Amino acid sequence: MDFFRSTFPTATVPVKMHLLEDHTYDWICAHGVGFGMMGEQGAESIHARFNTLQRTYATIRNNVKRLECIMKEHLVSIAPSLHH
What we know:
Radius of gyration: 15 Å
Shape: globular
Helix content: 55-70%
């Protein structure tokens, strides 16, 4: 990621790279296995869902607000009982 950020300083970090950088270690600690146990189909399904949400909220110009809307929508879809 250091190489990616230094080589492409204005590039957006792809979702899969974000998952590897920010969530792999915690996942392994919590489950004792890597993402491979989750399966490629599950990961691709999540990826497709976030792409759909990105298109849905593409008209929101503020990047932080757009991401907030995407994450809230995702949370409601996977854990409706946590939505306040």
